[in-house]
Amino acid sequence: xxxxxxxxxxxxxxxxxxxxxxxxxxxxxxxxxxxxxxxxxxxxxxxxxxxxxxxxxxxxxxxxxxxxxxxxxxxxxxxxxxxxxxxxxxxxxxxxxxxxxxxxxxxxxxxxxxxxxxxxxxxxxxxxxxxxxxxxxxxxxxxxxxxxxxxxxxxxxxxxxxxxxxxxxxxxxxxxxxxxxxxxxxxxxxxxxxxxxxxxxxxxxxxxxxxxxxxxxxx
Length: 219
Hints:
Layout: H1 2-7, H2 10-47, H3 52-64, H4 68-78, H5 88-114, H6 117-125, H7 130-160, H8 172-182, H9 187-217
């Protein structure tokens, strides 16, 4: 118990919270970017644009089958070799965005494919253009069915930020590692603290997903 009291000093907890804030900032930034890019890639694949859709599909499949850690190494260590040097923060954001965009694109594509084809035909028959039909009819319907899968993937993104400890991103796991690295008696208290913090954030998002799902099906 004494170890826990000492480990949870104001200075240590403040340091952990600083790391948590970085985790949240990286997650939110990557979520916004990957949501936009992933949605765009999903629409391109759904539209079956000659040549382009196949190229996008190939790139997405390659990224989805690579370890996220490899992509983090690539953005931080390999890109500078071709003249693109990113800070630790943006290297982590870039890696997460690349990986999650590929994952989200499949969710978007599956959601769009789930919308009955008659909806597209009905929109076009009323005089709407393809783009107008997609934006006003198809995508809104698809988005409702995608919500649970999207939230689940975003929860995974938050947990994946911990992998950026490998490039010394000062996020939650990194800061906890520094604290227990200075005193081995703080290992268990720090792991407990990390567990609680990650659990609270991810559990709140999972509750949000269930709430949105219940609203969608009205039960």
